[in-house]
């Protein structure tokens, strides 16, 4: 249930980063307040589109309970996180298409270097041989211009638990979606880069689905 007339109480202490992001969306999309009848309190969506997508701009750390509460309340939620505040965060190397069928028998290694191991070695319980993309079975696989590996020395683990899409804002003209490839040796996190303009246009009526 949307509630009118109480929006201003949520705006105190808002950062410039937060307000600048909201201003790129039509005013009619901003600061929508909804009553959670089950729990008896209000949720305020920073942006709520006509296609029922809530966009939350998160400038500060968030607890796992709060993350789950918001994700359970909004059927379609998108997170935009201020990554300029992350400590020890660095984009590293171009990646191949992680869903390339040629990689179906390989697993990404959890290292700063772009390397892989064979799935059959992991299944057999062997110590897997680490392979670079100069290996004969990998050298023909092209790298993309939009998937990247990254290093995060002091990660906010809560973001790895999110079920809804997460986009990291590092400043500049691009934004990076945090994605994970499910693997036998543990999920491999990577970034999908796209222009901020495309991200914004997606939610201003042109394409409201990920």
Question: What do these coordinates show?
Answer:
The chain is α+β, with helices and mostly antiparallel strands and 210 residues long. The chain has a domain at 2-86 and 154-181 and 189-206. Helix content is 16%, strand content 34%. It is built from 4 helices and 12 strands; from the N terminus they run E-H-E-E-E-H-E-E-E-E-H-E-E-E-E-H. The protein has helices at residues 16-23, 64-73, 119-123, 196-206, and strands at residues 2-3, 30-36, 41-48, 54-58, 77-82, 89-96, 106-108, 116-118, 143-152, 166-169, 174-181, 188-195. Strands 1-2-3-4-5-10-11-12-9-6 form a 10-stranded mixed beta sheet, sandwiched between helices. Strand 10 and strand 11 form a beta hairpin. The longest helix is centred in the C-terminal third of the chain and has 11 residues, at 196-206. The radius of gyration is 20 Å and the shape is elongated.
């Amino acid at each position: 249930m949307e509630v009118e007339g109480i929006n201003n109480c949520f705006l105190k202490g808002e950062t410039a980063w937060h307000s600048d992001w909201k201003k790129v969306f039509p005013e009619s999309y901003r600061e929508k307040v909804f009553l959670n009848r089950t729990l008896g309190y209000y949720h305020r969506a920073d942006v709520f589109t006509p296609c029922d997508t809530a966009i939350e701009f998160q400038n500060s750390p968030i607890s796992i309970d709060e993350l789950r509460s918001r994700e359970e309340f909004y059927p379609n939620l998108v997170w935009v996180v201020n990554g300029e505040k992350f400590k020890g965060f660095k984009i590293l190397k171009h990646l191949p298409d992680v869903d390339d069928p040629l990689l179906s028998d390989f697993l990404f290694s959890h290292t700063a270097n772009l390397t892989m191991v064979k799935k059959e070695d992991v299944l057999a319980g062997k110590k897997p041989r680490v392979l670079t993309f100069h290996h004969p079975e990998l050298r023909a696989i092209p790298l993309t211009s939009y998937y990247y590996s990254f290093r995060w020395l002091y990660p906010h683990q809560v973001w790895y638990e999110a079920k809804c899409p997460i986009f990291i804002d590092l400043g500049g003209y691009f934004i990076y979606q945090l994605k994970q490839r499910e693997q036998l040796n543990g999920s491999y996190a990577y970034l999908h880069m796209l222009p901020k303009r495309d991200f914004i246009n997606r939610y201003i009526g042109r394409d409201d689905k990920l």
